[in-house]
Amino acid sequence: MSSKRLCSIHKIRELQLPLIEIQEQYEVIKEIGSGDYGKVMLAVHRDTESQVALKAVPKITTPLKDFLIEFHYSYFLSPHNNILDTYDVAFETIEHYVFAQE
Fold it and tell me: Which residues are annotated as a binding site?
């Protein structure tokens, strides 16, 4: 047996997130939570009219790799009945990394 793993679903690649301005693609209804690690906003996607929760964490305190790990685990655990759905939507703004949940 090889000591080197051929594949792992837990390996996080460095990705280039699209840089967008939230207000261009979403109408933010209100902030529904905030804390030391970020904030959550209730928003509606302008093109699809889908209501989502946008979880935004500040870049200044959150390395991209840490954000991608949180997004990865949230996305892959979301099919469970007791966990919020995380959509395949992640992007960055000038100050935040952001992903969308139900």
Answer: 65
